[in-house]
Specification:
Number of strands of chain B: 10
Mean pLDDT of chain B: 95
CATH superfamily of the largest domain in chain B: NagB/RpiA/CoA transferase-like
Strand order of the largest sheet of chain B: 1-10-7-4-2-3
Structural class of chain B: alpha/beta
Strand content of chain A: 5-15%
Strand content of chain B: 5-15%
Largest interface: A-B, 73 and 70 residues
Number of domains of chain A: 2
Low-confidence stretches of chain B: 1-7
Number of helices of chain B: 22
Number of strands of chain A: 8
Radius of gyration of chain B: 26 Å
Protein name (chain A): (Fe-S)-binding protein
CATH class of the largest domain in chain B: Alpha Beta
Radius of gyration of chain A: 18 Å
Largest sheet of chain B: 6 strands, parallel
InterPro entries (chain A): Cys_rich_dom
Helix content of chain B: 40-55%
Distance between the termini of chain A: 26 Å
Oligomer: heterodimer
CATH architecture of the largest domain in chain B: 3-Layer(aba) Sandwich
Pfam families (chain A): CCG
Number of helices of chain A: 14
Order of helices and strands of chain A: EHHEHHEHHHEHEHHEHHEHEH
Organism (chain A): Actinotalea lenta
Distance between the termini of chain B: 78 Å
Number of domains of chain B: 2
Structural class of chain A: alpha/beta
Chain lengths: 256, 500
């Protein structure tokens, strides 16, 4: 399959390792991977902060960049983020329509129908749960709100993780409770956000796991930031990093 | 004031009684700053919300058709809102035909005036009340007090709140912010007829309240209630409750006044089937609530012999005009969204500065007050304008809502309304930075440059965590380290890989 990777703006600038892991994983599985140069952002931050009209240019760029999927340039688009795929699938067309661009809305809908979050792509489209990964660590998984309640990925990440060789999964308490990130919420309501991430970090520490994993770097940034501040020694890994890790190329836990 | 009354440990929350029950206190982040610091409050809330949450999960999971019930509830509400004017006039005709009197109130002042007039004409100085959000919303108790009429709340938690001089902090469990030790204090010092040496044992507290309330039920001439539902077809009004205090108020007094938000009307009696299943399971986590009272106008020789129904707008038609936001009017006040909300669990209800707290409050209050409308509240720093921002958009509320109100979508929409009031206005610092960000995020080239700049900082900091950032980054580094930055940009990695 020819697959286009949408790294997302956050991963693209601050945490490239989620994108590079996605690329390595998909190539290992025998696919041809592309990373379109014009990609930037899905528009979620603007839309969710109340700047829908201002997000139009961002959405337009995203749709234009990935529209070649409709002409067969790629078979699918994947992003290592439940949150961004959620916005692409459930917000872009709505925002475009409300701001009077029906054509953009229609194209956005068509592109979004070919866009998948990583665990969706692997399990539903590529039909694989054992990706041949090796990850000899104890891991606790935070399922992230948008993967759970916007995309409804269900237990797909879990199916993938359970097939990883050497991994020991630890159950996270109150796993489905939000970590308190919420995009600009973490700044606008920073004290409430701080109280929420403190609870999440407590739950992570209580598992005794070496690694906290998730399918979204935004949530991980929040959780691992709190864990690092407390010097817990718990490290963060994106789902893609765990799945990309093999005996030959084991996880380093650092960027590039 | 509190020292004078001899109760130094239990202060009213908030400390001053609000003038507007829908809008009091500071903006959400500032109000939350106060409530987050109250360790006792957070412990009370954590225990209480988690208990109700688990109960709700159990009783909704046992119904095979729960999802279909939710769909039915949403569909009935949507269709009722689409023909609200017709249903309301039909309700008026049905109630009048059965001997009731219907009043229409545009706003809180009109509703209070109508109710005060009725009570005054009846010559009553004391009225008993069934817990009602609509009367909370209009500040009816305060309006009655100004007219020299003593309104006594008879729901146990609502009575606690009233005696403490508090505002409710939860729709269903208004005293959720108080624990039993505080309740003992409140009863001892404020109830007037509390038994000597009252302990904080739940049974003792309940018995004290029971005796206190029983005396008032038996002497009441007038009762005031809200309504959970009213049937347009028959004129039947329904109140759903747990303690039996409602049944007392609705049957014993001579005269009954019901204040009802106009969105509570349902087309037919058959619709009750859906809501009498959805409501108890979603609110108290029970299969069925202990008391369901229904009455149709006046029945000679049985129950109140005079019945008045006050139909309250107070911003509801304004909310109805918002295509996306109007679904907030579908709310049946079960408060399931409060109990699952991680923000509510941490801040408590008082941070929302409205009688409607939690996720539903964050979309209902701004609409009732016309956020972003000409002359209406606006902006992320306004007490009302800040409410739609009081959420991480985690979606737990949407999943819990028995009538499938898409609260996250409504929150996003109201954020936009709050930030884009009509007419020219000077852009805020956030407006400007978001516009700049939009330029960068609309261009692959600009974002690649941003990635290179980040990697440059990454090389300069050499894999060390950044523990402190200047404002606004300090809002992040208050409790978190900033991420260790990459030393090479994604674009650079990809370019090199493509060369291989």
């Amino acid at each position: 399959m020819r697959i286009a990777v949408f790294a997302t703006c956050l991963v693209g600038t601050v945490a490239p390792r989620a994108a590079t892991a996605t690329v390595r994983l998909l190539e290992r599985l025998g696919h041809t991977v592309d990373m379109p140069a014009d990609q930037a952002c899905c528009g979620q931050m603007h839309v969710n902060t109340g700047y829908g009209p201002e997000a139009m240019g961002v959405i337009r760029n995203h749709v234009r960049t990935f529209a070649p999927v409709l002409d067969g340039r790629w078979d699918a688009i994947v992003a290592p983020s439940g949150s961004c795929v959620g916005s692409i699938r459930h917000q872009q067309a709505d925002v475009a329509r409300r701001n009077g661009d029906d054509r953009l809305a229609r194209t956005a809908e068509q592109v979004s129908a070919r866009t998948y979050e990583l665990s969706e792509l692997l399990v539903d489209v590529l039909g694989v749960t054992d990706v041949g990964a090796w990850f000899p660590h104890t891991v606790t998984y935070h399922p992230t709100c948008h993967s759970l309640r916007v995309l409804r990925v269900g237990d797909r990440p879990r199916q993938l993780l359970e097939a990883v060789e050497g991994i020991e999964l630890r159950e996270l308490g109150e796993a489905e409770q939000c970590c308190g990130f919420g995009g600009t919420f973490s700044l606008k309501n920073s004290e409430t956000s701080a109280a929420m991430v403190t609870d999440k970090a407590d739950e992570v520490v209580a598992t005794g796991a070496e690694v906290v994993a998730a399918g979204d770097w935004s949530c991980l940034l929040n959780i691992s930031g709190a864990l690092d501040r407390r010097r817990t020694g718990v490290r963060a890994a994106h789902l893609a990093e765990i799945l990309a890790s093999t005996r030959d190329e084991p996880w380093q836990g650092a960027d590039l | 004031m509190s020292t004078f009354l001899g109760m130094p440990t239990v202060r009213p929350q908030p400390s001053r009684p609000p003038r507007d029950p829908l809008r009091w206190g500071a903006s959400f982040p500032h109000a939350a700053h106060e409530t987050l610091a109250d360790g006792q409050l957070r412990a009370n809330l954590r225990t209480a919300t988690r208990t109700i949450r688990d109960k709700r999960r159990r009783v909704t999971a046992e119904l095979d058709d729960w999802e279909q019930l939710r769909d039915a509830g949403a569909a009935i509400k949507a269709s009722a809102m689409a023909r609200l004017p017709d249903l309301l006039t039909q309700l008026e005709e049905s109630v009048t035909a059965r001997g009731g009197v219907v009043h229409w109130a545009r706003d809180a002042a009109e509703a209070n005036e109508v109710v005060t007039g009725i009570v005054r004409e009846a010559g009553a100085r004391e009225v008993v009340k069934v817990k009602s959000m609509a009367t909370q919303e209009i500040g009816l108790n305060e309006a009655l007090a100004e007219a020299g009429i003593d309104a006594i709340e008879t729901d146990l938690a609502e009575r606690i709140v009233q005696l403490a001089g508090d505002q409710p902090s939860h729709i269903l469990v208004p005293a959720i912010h108080r624990n039993r030790e505080e309740i003992r204090e409140i009863f001892t010092h404020r109830m007037g007829d509390a038994p000597e040496g009252l302990s904080s044992e739940p049974r003792e507290l309940a018995m004290a309240a029971r005796a206190h309330l029983r005396a008032r039920f038996l002497r009441a001439e007038v009762a005031i209630s809200g309504a959970n539902m009213a049937i347009a077809e028959t004129g039947t009004v329904a109140v759903v409750e747990s303690e039996g205090n409602g049944r007392m108020c609705l049957t014993l007094p001579r005269l009954l006044v019901t204040v009802m938000g106009i969105e509570k009307v349902l087309p037919t009696a058959r619709d009750l089937e859906v809501f009498l299943q959805l409501l108890p399971r979603s609110s108290t986590g029970e299969r069925m609530n202990p008391y369901t009272s229904m009455w149709t106008g006046v029945t000679p020789g049985d129950g109140p012999q005079e019945f008045h129904l006050v139909l309250l707008d107070n911003g509801r038609t304004r909310a109805l005009a918002d295509e996306l936001g109007r679904q907030a009017l579908h709310c049946i006040r079960c408060s399931a969204c409060l109990n699952v909300c991680p923000v509510y669990e941490h801040t408590g209800g008082h941070a929302y500065g409205s009688v409607y707290p939690g996720p539903i409050g964050a979309i209902l209050t701004p609409q009732l007050l016309g956020v972003g409308e000409p002359g209406g509240p606006a902006g992320a720093h306004d007490p009302t304008g800040s409410l739609p921002f009081a959420s991480t958009l985690c979606g737990a509320c949407f999943d819990a809502c028995p009538v499938k109100i898409d609260i996250p979508a409504a929150l996003v929409h109201l954020r936009e309304r709050s930030l884009h009031p009509p007419g020219p206005h000077a852009p805020s610092a956030t407006d400007v930075s978001m516009r700049v960000a939009a330029r960068v995020l609309s261009s692959g080239r600009a974002l690649r440059w941003a990635g290179r700049a980040v990697a440059l900082v990454g090389r300069l900091t050499g894999g060390r965590a950044i523990r402190w950032l200047p404002w606004p980054g300090s809002l992040w580094t208050r409790v978190r380290d900033a991420p260790v930055l990459p030393v090479r940009s994604l674009a650079a990695w990809w370019a090199r890989r493509s060369l291989r």
